[in-house]
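ok so i was messing around last nite and threw this chain in just to see what happens. nothing serious, just curious
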Amino acid sequence: MLLATAAVLAASPAAAETPQRGGTISTVLSADIRSTNPGVDRDGATDIVHQHIVEGLVGFREDLEVGPMLADRWDVSPDGKTYTFHLRQGVQFQNGATMTSAEVKWSWDRLMDPATKWRCRDVYTGDNGLKVESVTAPDPDTVVYVLDRPSAGFLYNLARMDCGGTPVLHPSSVKPDGSWDKPVGTGPFILSDWRPGQYIELTRFDGYTPRDDAMSGYVGRKEVFVDKVRFNVMPDSAAKLTALQAGALDTASLESQDRIQIQDNAAFEVQSSITPGWEALILHSEDPILQDRRVRQAIVMALDRAAIAEAVTFGGSKFSATPVPEFSPYHSQAQTDALPYDPERAKALLAEAGYTRQRIVMTANKRYAEMYDCAYSPRLDPLGQWERIIGPQPRKIWKDPRAIDLLAQANATTDRAQMQAVLDRIGRPFTEEAPAASLYLHASDYAVAKRIQGFKVWPADAPRYWNVSVAK
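result:
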């Protein structure tokens, strides 16, 4: 449910030169991909690779609004419940077939089949609000979605990277028995080799049909100048830094401490962008100890969150009281209220709650260093940020009826002023109930070898290797 408009805070990319064709870019992932099945068995590293292979009707622009990709344009009915997508013509799949509305509908039906186990199926079933009542293909160039209600988040959900961008695939992506085989998409790269635990290699799709409009985020004109991109799997940050300094990598995401080491290296440019990736300590309110909100409040007030943000990011990020980024038009002063750092008050709250030093277990994720340091992962906008933790689903940790109702109100309007008012109201119960200790918004830092031209970081924190070339 992504409704943010973000100002890109990236450093300027290397000076533009005439792109040269050919060459291989060597880059790195901190973890291997989970599968080749977009939006199904996935995580952040997997999404990065998939978004080079597949595309959807829409995608995120540089400003994190939604733009057309496989759709040329769309119309919305006056009641906000019917979306008519007019498809681009002449788009080819990676097997040479021409894309039509039939493949768009087939892809949607497959994703919505419970057997597929698409991550985002429950967004459209009506179980949590919005229901897509029908998807039809009245002619080869048109697809019509009918919703049961207006939805501010519909297009943003279609674009979500964790949903695989709602990928349009050719039916040959599955075997005759319906089981998954490999992605046959419309993207600018083809998956040519995957050696688990070692690397993933993508090859330029020479039959790719680029858009005419300027590149922006995941949409616009995509031209592939390089022959291949190799994503090397390197979970160890020290090994990654060594490979980078030895010239074995052309680009690499940098953890905060590594940014300090590499920023003065003349062989590289360091690019940075604040992202909506929210880092927080999640406090499960259904836990026998944490169900008392005084205990949750005490934990929040016992943490010097500003100092944690400064230390963990080596000054790259600052404390944020909310998951809504400052660069979002939906960020406001009303959302910046936070429980203060007050260890003495924290002790008093624990005493009031009858806490007697029972053990509290913290679970973190070692696949990504900063998630291990303080523990969470990214969505791009206000509704998306809140939707990750608010809701009745088992994976959601904030089941407060007030918050659930406010989120539903926000998603049911397309009026920006109404949306702002509702988002501002979510902030108060968030502070009172303390379902999380908000820490900071993640900064995306990349080292880019000087021979690489056209690479640019953006708030989505996802590298793109189209429109990127290797100087010879």
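not much to say yet. Residues 294 and 408 are 27 Å apart (CA to CA).
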